[in-house]
Amino acid sequence: MATELLRVGVIGTGNIGADHVDRVANQVSGARVTALFDVATERAAELAGQVGAVAMPTASEVISSPDVDAIIIASPGEFHAPLTLECIAAGKPVLCEKPLAPTVEECESVIAAEQASGRRLVQVGFMRRNDAGYRHMKNNLSSGAIGEALLLHCEHRNPDVPDSFTSQMSMTDSVIHEIDTARWLLGEEIVRVRVISGKQTPNAAPHLHDPQLVIMESQSGVLVSVEVFVNAKYGYDVRCEVVGSSGVTSLGSQDLGNFVSDTRRTATMPANWRIRFGDAYRAEIQDWINGIAAGQVRGANSFDGLCATHVAQAAVRAVTTGTTVEVPVLEQPAFYH
Ligand code: NAP
Questions:
Q1: pLDDT tens, 47-59?
Q2: CATH number, domain containing residue 51
Q3: Which of 64, 167, 218, 266 is the most exposed place for a label (fewest CB within 10 A)?
Q4: Is residue 14 part of a domain?
Q5: 40 within ligand 1 shell (Cβ under 6 A)
């Protein structure tokens, strides 16, 4: 007998939401898309037609639909917490894009509701945990191959961003990935953060500090440096290296290939996050589907989402005040062990 496919509803069908629809419909196994919602109703209807789903008039109707078993939230961040709370109330597993919510208070409300429901239902879209390069680094750390972690260096360069992008968004939208990466790789919390804005690129909007350097410290004193440069122009370039007490582990080359012609050797790099992390997004969605089939939610959980937002908000305060900001270390509820 054929196994029943998980019926997935997707809320928000912009950049990443449309990609997730395509991934569920065409690139992974065990699921199909049955319902979509976007305030851009024509976009949702067109996409629904392509994958045999129904475009619904509201997000709430997707969540409560008897034809939807699980939900992906890919709307703008401000809607994540209210929609996630609705999914928890409906008792349905949800993959919520990062951030879990832009404010600590909203993340706390999700955690409280999830615990009250008695079941882990929420996964947060920190997909670097599914990237082969980062997993390789994590293995080198946990096996002791490089000794104790002492320093973590991250670089996060985007080719460009819209004019609406702010210095705070560099922390809440971009650096938040590095924050989760640092917590996950090091297995400890970030306790302190400062942000330094230096010489400005001529290519950024005047209101945006770009590039910026974020310096964080972990509980055991590991120094984490993050360069965030969102108008780097030349391509999408994410790098990461851990310096340990007896060795170094890094992501290595991110080149997509190279060729030699007319005495020149040319390497091709990813143009954007979509290309660089395509395999990681696929692995994340497949793992989410498999986890639901096995009755577990895997990957980053609501507590990870809360901790990341805490640090990102501290980084925002560090940008606005120019000071070093302490981050409280939260006790992880047993529910999330
Ligand atoms: P986007 O292209 O602006 O897409 C968001 C979509 O949601 C748009 O179609 C938007 O419609 C729609 N929308 C607006 N209000 C809505 C509502 N109340 N309910 C449902 N849909 C609504 O943004 P995006 O780049 O896809 O980002 C979406 C989320 O994914 C963000 O939280 C972002 O941080 C996250 N993201 C994560 C990654 C990652 O690496 N994990 C990468 C990219 C994005 P309008 O255009 O008409 O407003």
A1: 999 999 999 999 9
A2: 3.40.50.720
A3: 266
A4: yes
A5: yes
